[in-house]
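Before the break, one more example. Copy the sequence into your notebook; we will annotate it together after we see the structure.
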Amino acid sequence: MPRLIAVILLCLAALIPQASAQPRDTITIGMSQFPPDMHPFITSTSVRNVVLLAMNRPMTVTATDGSPICALCTELPSLENGLARLVTRPDGSPGMVVTFPIRSDLVWGDGAALTARDIAFSLKVSFVFNPPQFIESARALDDQHLEVTLRSPVFDFQRIASVFVLPEHIEGPIFDAAHDPLDYGAKSVFSRRPEERGLWFGPYVVQSFEPNNQIVLEPNPYWRGQKPYFRRVVMRLIENTASLQANLLSGDVDTVMTANMGLTLDQTLALAKSQSARFEFDFRPSIGSTEHLTVNHDNPLLADRRARQAISMAIDRDTIVARLFDNRFKATTLFIHPDEAGFDASVKGWSYDPKAARALLAELGFRPGPDGILVDGAGRRFSIDLVSTAGNRTRELVEQVLQTQLKAVGIELLIKNEPARVMFGETLRKHSFTGLVQFDGGDGIDTPPITMFSTAYVPTAANGFIGRNYGAYRNPQMDAALLAVRAELDPVARKLKWRRVLELYVQDQPDIPLYFAATAVITPKWLQNINRPGRIGYFTGWIEEWRPR
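Here is what the structure looks like once it is written out:
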């Protein structure tokens, strides 16, 4: 009998692994933000871009050192290989022509070939939503060669055509028939039917799209790259980060988006201590973007740069980073990271100095009222709104500290948070906030922040609310300084021109920088290849490489 029982137990033991070892064919990703739309150009949100990378790729992607890597091209253009040429324009000014050789194995999800014509069309559409400062024209020489003509040389010409790609055979007729950018955005298939397979050419296509709920992806049968492993990818919105953490621990989601699209740093640090047996945790510094306060420059209380300087000096960033983030984040008084080429240690931002802040505010005519809040000669209280993404515990904690620190110099902050889809889709884009908005943003590593600080990128009703200069900062000197950096090919001379941008930034304080966050990649122990060292956008940017161990 004992032998019989042993045999039965061995048989059961053999059967149980077979049942539990069924291959996983679905992976669920939790996210605390949801894309306001799926069109690459209508709005600018990090979560939308991360989602898009599973179905779409730009011309180049970026290595962690800022250098470009070909995604759609077969070779990076350079002056040495002749694919980039300095030319003289008809008016005698210097120009540049850049040619990108395009891969021949790119196919849309409906079987149509992706060619240089699609990329040229995509650049044309992107120009409507983000007017180009340097590109004069883009055209397909043939199916496999894209030619971009520049009004002047730019140092980052290898990245000049790096936009998400639109299918001309689907979007072209809609774009040509549209009355204006808003009309096109409303009628675009990306907005009306993101499940249309022909919109996508990446490893996955959209199977279903439920606004403010979830996006389900399935493999693209026409994808010619590495075959993705998972039959189904679910990207699920869980706005409250405490609920998102609970879903991760319960196994309802397998992993979470990175940065402010997923869990907060304090949550991740706690999980790293208690859940190391279940997950791997990799912390990466954020370099190309900064957590900051966008300032409404049209608000009379904030229009004078001394007011913005005072707010900056009232903020104790070092305390915020030490007490809230265990010094994993890096405090900053500039928008540029020390690891970027344009950083200049000789340019100092506004460090913590509440006494100097109070003196500047007094210079502007503000005096403490009965409750300690500053009041000017006209009786206006220095009371301003602060908006950020509702449910994000990190930002809510930072807001509370900012509220306390600014009150110490007589400024009242009224916190009025909104869902991320509202804040990014409406409030920022349409410049409908009145005071400050806290979020993470930037133009990328070693990229002058033209779209953030140039007058040409102020969103207005007249231009269809295009552009990312959400605060409506306007300074012709900054416009010229930013363009001068972009147009300088010599690294040594460019460094000097970067200094001018930084000096103007400190002088004007177009936004108020807080810190460079750290991005945490949380990988369940059964999964590999989410974390791809050496690449920026390493999360869904290479989702086809994700595999069970």
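The CA atoms of residues 195 and 495 lie 46 Å apart. The domain at 60-170 is CATH 3.90.76.10 (Dipeptide-binding Protein; domain 1). Try to locate both features in your own notes.
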